[in-house]
């Protein structure tokens, strides 16, 4: 890792007024205050067709994978759709693999209109564990985003602090030495 860790955040929302993008911005600010350089990967700016294993370099997939691979830590942010994470984030993660996520520190953030966006984080955690990422135990959620976020800012101070703490934690643990490969990762080889 470089002297200054580099943190990328992947926004799993395509909405122009995305609450997920707002919350990731707060997390990235926290990472910057902890000494990291940061970058937002806005999936609206990339052409990523639905993943086809026979066309793994389709569209902007090589750019996406390069940017994730060059990071020292990754933040994944998603709105909660039907109890899980967004399809656009799923597509982005499908283009990535062990080269991008193995032994990588990953922080998770979810935003929801309702109260309990935790299941989306559970699903993301399973995907990241299968790729041998080191997923932070700490995670951030923004429930009832229509109230918590106003005019592009998190107005709920406790939720804003949780998002900023997530950014600080990915920097804090960017150099962690993960445990040996998980059983799940060995089962996914060649899938």
UniProtKB/TrEMBL annotation:
Show the GO cellular component annotation of the record.
cytosol
Short name of one Pfam family: FMN_red
Cofactor (UniProt): [4Fe-4S] cluster
Q: Where is the NADPH-dependent FMN reductase-like domain?
A: 6-146
Coiled coil segments of this chain? none
What GO terms are given for molecular function? Answer: FMN binding; oxidoreductase activity
Q: Which family does it belong to?
A: Belongs to the SsuE family. Isf subfamily.
Write down the PANTHER family for this protein, in alphabetical order.
CHROMATE REDUCTASE (PTHR30543), NAD(P)H-DEPENDENT FMN REDUCTASE LOT6 (PTHR30543:SF21)
Designated name of the protein: NADPH-dependent FMN reductase
* Organism of derivation: Natronoarchaeum mannanilyticum
